Write a sequence for this structure.
């Protein structure tokens, strides 16, 4: 499968396809949110939860996976982090520790680089994919609650996003990406995007989400619930129950799996870490729920 954001962003840069960025929700009609129905899946990322290299538990049951379907690297994306797993790279730090009762998705600057196919990686990035465990589609909603306790620095790129379960790309739904170059002065916004193809041309609908504009206090270091639902032929994204975007479903009837990751580096997003970028960087996970929606 072609690398999602990596090759896509390269193509966009080359073809100058980026549209004008606009605030999230600017074109969204505010409509009643369908009520929640049956709970289809739930995890607190700790109890009964495993993330493995193979996507299989020791007993053979499906588990969340610690890498993309194709590799642990994103060279076409300009990322400098290698998506690590302590079970595969002994001596590397654990990217999935549990501390104070919560799972961390944690990326590190390494004292000793990871070597892979003749190349050294000075950063261990962290990723968890739900492929094979849980996916979401028409008439369903996924909600993930997490916090980003470090104020943004250049080179740090956490995200909650979805890819088609059939392995195709595009499209791609980025519910939350945080790569604003705010250097700590505005830790209260993120990007919400949809990558797709129209008439054979790849396009990106990217929107900036401001917490203050939604009347939300705090910042990205607080726990927030990020949601996406597929209803009425549309993809609708939410933050703490407030709608932030509404777009046509680019894959009607399709299924989507979930990726949570803390990437390091990226060209053009978000650039290489600076010498004073603090590490480790992490996403603190609280819960993920998938519901059937009514209406």
């Amino acid at each position: 499968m072609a690398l999602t954001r990596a090759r896509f962003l390269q193509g966009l840069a080359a073809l100058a396809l980026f549209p004008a960025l606009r605030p999230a929700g600017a074109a969204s009609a505010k409509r009643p949110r369908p009520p929640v129905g049956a709970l289809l899946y739930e995890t607190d990322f700790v109890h009964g939860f495993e993330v493995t290299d193979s996507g299989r538990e020791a007993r053979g049951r499906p588990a969340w996976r610690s890498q993309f379907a194709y590799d642990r690297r994103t060279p076409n994306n300009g990322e400098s982090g290698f998506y690590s797993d302590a079970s595969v790279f002994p001596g590397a730090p654990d990217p999935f520790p549990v501390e104070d009762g919560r799972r961390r998705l944690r990326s590190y600057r390494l004292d000793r680089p990871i070597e892979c196919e003749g190349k050294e990686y000075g950063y261990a990035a962290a990723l968890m994919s739900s492929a094979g465990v849980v996916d979401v589609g028409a008439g369903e909603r996924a909600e993930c609650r997490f916090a980003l306790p470090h104020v943004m620095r250049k080179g740090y790129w956490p995200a909650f996003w979805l890819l088609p379960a059939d392995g195709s790309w595009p499209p791609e739904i980025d519910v939350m990406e945080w790569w604003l170059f705010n250097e700590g002065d505005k830790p209260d916004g993120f990007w919400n995007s949809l990558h797709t193809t129209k008439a054979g041309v790849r396009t990106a609908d990217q929107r900036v989400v401001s917490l203050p504009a939604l009347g939300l206090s705090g910042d990205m270091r607080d726990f927030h619930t990020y949601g996406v639902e597929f209803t009425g032929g549309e993809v609708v994204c939410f933050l703490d129950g407030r709608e932030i975007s509404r777009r046509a479903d680019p894959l009607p009837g399709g299924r989507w799996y979930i990726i949570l990751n803390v990437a390091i580096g990226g060209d053009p997003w978000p650039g290489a870490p600076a010498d004073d970028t603090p590490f480790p960087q992490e996403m603190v996970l609280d819960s993920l729920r998938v519901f059937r929606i009514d209406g």
The radius of gyration is 18 Å. The mean pLDDT is 86.
